[in-house]
Structure formats: structure tokens, C-alpha cells
Specification:
Elements lengths: L7 E5 L4 H12 L3 E6 L6 H9 L4 E5 L5 H15 L4 E4 L14 H29 L2 E6 L3 H4 L5 H21 L4 E8 L5 H4 L3 H9 L9 H12 L10 E4 L6
Helix pairs in contact: 1-9, 3-4, 4-6
Bound molecules: nicotinamide-adenine-dinucleotide (NAD).
Length: 247
């Protein structure tokens, strides 16, 4: 299947985990990939794997939460790729803690990267999407943005924010055939969830109707669908990939 042939996708947080799986999935469907992560070296493995699939891949360093960094990187991306068709806002962090003990710094860091980062990266590519009258934007939210979680007030707020942002941007850009959708993954096996204690993991599994954690590829499959021509009539939606957690 080459449904993304001749397309260029930008994936933030592409160095590992879900972002790497998304980059490889889109490349497998024929897209060339601009890999963005905090440091150039974080992108090396993904770039090598994308090239192994026979597609072009470029590494870019950016902190998604800093406007100057995002703008400079977007310029470099457009200079290298000459166009962008797909943007996946995947970079994200957690800094968990109970509300009463949560520091302002931990609140700000999570909101800045997860929510402001999504805004900044979307804004910077909107001009070229508008000009070409096409584009698919996929934002990685979370089940926590839908149902909440004790100890994750900052993360839950940031991901609920991503969902509100997605719907507003979808309405704003729809007249130019630009789609904006979100995916709300449940608990997926990555470095982010490797921190969960065995006891907490037991409790977690009881909340997942399908009875196991998801894989990065489960999320990547949903991104491929929303970024492909098959989803051309879908915008402003939140697709849960969570083993049934949020139903
Ligand atoms: P991860 O920690 O394995 O990977 C995140 C990547 O983002 C890393 O490569 C990291 O370097 C990069 N990154 C972090 N801050 C950045 C910044 N400021 N600028 C640029 N890049 C930055 O995480 P993951 O589990 O692969 O999660 C990816 C996305 O999926 C996140 O948005 C996360 O919130 C979301 N998500 C994950 C899960 C899960 O269970 N793993 C569930 C729901 C949602």
C-alpha cells in the first residue's frame, strides 16, 4: 500500500516510542519524514529506520515549547522538503504528582510542551497548508484528557486542551480542505509507561476492557488512517485507541 506516495510528514517527538512508530508507519505507506526531537542525535535511529524502508528522512532539533526554536526549525524543514502534507504533533511529557504537591514548574512544563507545543507547531505550518489547500494534522492527546487521572492534573489538562484545540482548528481550517483530528491513546508500552510500578500496572489492567496495554503500532495505525485519503471527510474528531478504557 502506497497511499502516502509523494507526501511529506513532519512528526514531533519522533526519536522513540509512539513518535518513532508513527514515522515508520507513514514511511511504510510511502511518505518521506521530517523527524523532530529535542536533539539531533535523538532522531538518528528513526532516520536510519525510515531510510531502511526506502524513504527520505531528515533529522531536526527543536523544543516544541519554544516559539523561536519552532519557527527556525519549520524554516529548515520547508527548505529541505519544499512542502509538508502531514503534521503529527506527538511530542509530550508527564510530570505526575498529587494536586496539593504539584509545583508551578511541573504544571508549566507539561502545559508548555503538550499543549503550547501543539499550538506552535500547527501555527507555523498553517500558512503552507492554507496555500496548498490541503493538509492533515493529527494531534496525540490521551485517554487522560477524556476521563482524568489522580496525580495527572497537569497532564489531563494539557491533553483536554489538545482536544479543544483540535476541534477549534478543525473548524477554522475546514474550508481549505485541511483536516485536524486527535487520537486519544490509552496506556501504551513505551518509556513513558515503563515507569509505572507493577502494583499500579495490575490495577490499570483491570480498567482496560481488552485486558492488555497497547503497542506504539496501535497508535501509528490510527495516525496512518487519519493522515490518509481514506479519512478525507473526517475532521475535528477524537479517535480513542485505548482497549476500550474510555467508553
Ligand atoms: P516518550 O517519552 O517515549 O517519547 C516522547 C518523545 O518526545 C521523546 O523522543 C522526547 O525526546 C520527545 N520530546 C519530549 N519533549 C520534547 C520537546 N520539548 N520538544 C521536542 N521533543 C520532545 O513518550 P511516548 O509514550 O512515545 O508518548 C508520545 C506521545 O503520546 C506523548 O504526547 C504522550 O503524551 C502520548 N501518549 C502516550 C501514552 C502512553 O501510554 N505511552 C498514552 C497516551 C498518550
Amino acid at each position: 500500500m502506497n497511499e502516502l506516495a509523494n507526501q511529506v510528514a513532519v512528526v514531533t517527538g519522533a526519536g522513540r516510542g509512539i513518535g518513532q512508530a508513527i514515522a515508520l508507519k507513514l514511511a511504510g505507506a510511502g511518505a518521506d519524514i521530517a523527524c523532530v526531537d529535542l536533539k539531533l542525535e535523538f532522531c538518528a535511529e528513526t532516520v536510519q529506520k525510515v531510510q531502511g524502508l526506502g524513504r527520505k528522512a531528515w533529522p531536526f532539533a527543536a523544543n516544541v515549547s519554544e516559539a523561536a526554536s519552532v519557527e527556525a526549525t519549520a524554516e529548515q524543514i520547508l527548505a529541505a522538503t519544499s512542502k509538508v502534507d502531514i503534521l503529527v504533533n506527538n511530542a509530550g511529557i508527564t510530570k505526575d504528582g498529587l494536586l496539593m504537591r504539584m509545583s508551578e514548574a511541573d504544571w508549566d512544563a507539561v502545559l508548555d510542551i503538550n499543549l503550547k507545543g501543539t499550538f506552535l507547531f500547527t501555527k507555523v505550518f498553517t500558512r503552507s497548508f492554507l496555500k496548498q489547500r490541503s493538509g492533515h494534522i493529527v494531534n496525540i492527546a490521551s485517554v487522560i484528557g477524556l476521563i482524568g487521572n489522580a496525580g495527572q492534573c497537569n497532564y489531563g489538562a494539557s491533553k483536554a486542551g489538545v482536544i479543544g484545540f483540535t476541534k477549534s482548528a478543525a473548524r477554522e481550517l475546514a474550508s481549505r480542505s485541511i483536516t485536524v483530528n486527535a487520537i486519544a491513546p490509552g496506556f501504551i508500552e513505551t518509556a513513558m509507561t515503563a515507569k509505572i510500578s507493577p502494583e499500579a500496572r495490575e490495577g490499570l489492567l483491570k480498567q482496560i476492557p481488552l485486558g492488555n496495554l497497547g503497542q506504539p503500532d496501535d497508535v501509528a495505525n490510527a495516525v496512518l488512517f487519519l493522515a490518509s485519503p481514506a479519512a478525507r471527510y473526517i475532521t475535528g474528531q477524537v479517535l480513542s485507541v485505548d482497549g476500550g478504557m474510555a467508553m
